[in-house]
Amino acid sequence: MSLPTSRHFTIERNADGVYAALAIKGAGAMCNAGIVDLGDQTLIFDTFFTPQAADDLRHAAEVLLGRPVGIVINSHWHDDHVRGNQSFPGARIIATDVTRDLIAERVAANIARYQAEVPAFLAALRERLAAEQDEHRRAELQADLSFGEEVQATLATLQLTPPTETFTGEEYVLDGPARQARLLTYGGGHTASDTVLYLPAERIVFTGDLVVIGEHPLLADGHPEAWPAILDRLGALAIETLMPGHGPLGTRAAIAAMRQYLSDIAALAQQLVTNGATLEQAVETPVPTQYRDLSGEGVFRRNIAFLYQRDQSVAEVTANEN
Question: What is the crossing angle of helices 108-131 and 135-152, to 10°?
């Protein structure tokens, strides 16, 4: 059987009954998603940014596995992983209790903000694109514009759809006749609460944004000081295939690469504070050579600003205590 297609994502088969839906840049998915056959139920891991993309995801899952989607997992609260929830009526939507509360609070506010601000944002993007000469930045701006136009088309019908079930503790197990799926959470790194989906028999992990490949991870909404220890625990799992929150499929090596990025960017921010750089100077710091091929330079600058301000506050407190 040929794999379903969508303008929002591509489908890759990881194992019998296990598929990755990998986001196409500039379309409505934004993040990656997973489709898993438990044997008696179909499970979806993350639901994309727009209902259009999520509708295609639901259709793909139904074509591949021949039944309606019964279970949806939200890895964390960020909009690009949960706004498609409304496309899965009747499904159990599962997340940690912390993630559920953050969706109810922040995604609702973000929907209202997008409805108010997206038209002006798109107009500004078009002006920047027209003026930009650098081809790499033009490509990123064009992708942002395409994505923004996709989002604008959804705003009139967008509905907040929070999880219907939550779990506490580090593990929640879903057993089916085809396989076991383990939801694992070790606290918060990327956000205040992050959940991964682990298939132990197949050695496949869907990491959400705890691991990304080929782009800068967002640090500014989480706990980067706790993130490395979470990655260490993920690295202790038997893993052959890793689906990151963003980017192509990888292996367990992506966990070590992510940990190295966190270490390098934290060290850079600390060095800027030690050298007496201002916030403005810190934000203008060039991307380190080893990370210049990653997409999302704006995210890198947000990361530097976040870490610089955190380290600067610590330095000021220490100076006052002395």
Answer: 140
Distance CA 76, CA 56 (A): 21
Q: What are phi and psi of 183, to 5 degrees?
A: -90, 125
Amino acid identity, residue 287? V
Distances (CA, A) of 64 to 43, 50, 91: 12, 21, 17
Residue 33 pLDDT? 98
User: What's residue 147's pLDDT?
Assistant: 80
User: Can you tell me the mean pLDDT for 118-138?
Assistant: 90
Contact 202, 34 (CB under 8 A): no
- Check residue 229 and give left, alpha or beta (phi > 0: left; psi -120 to 50: alpha): alpha
Q: Euclidean distance between the first and final Cα of the chain, in Å?
A: 69
Contact 9, 53 (CB under 8 A): yes
The stretches of 241-294 forming alpha helices (DSSP H) are: 253-274, 279-283
pTM of the entire predicted model: 0.91
- Dihedrals phi, psi of 303, to nearest 5 degrees: -60, -45
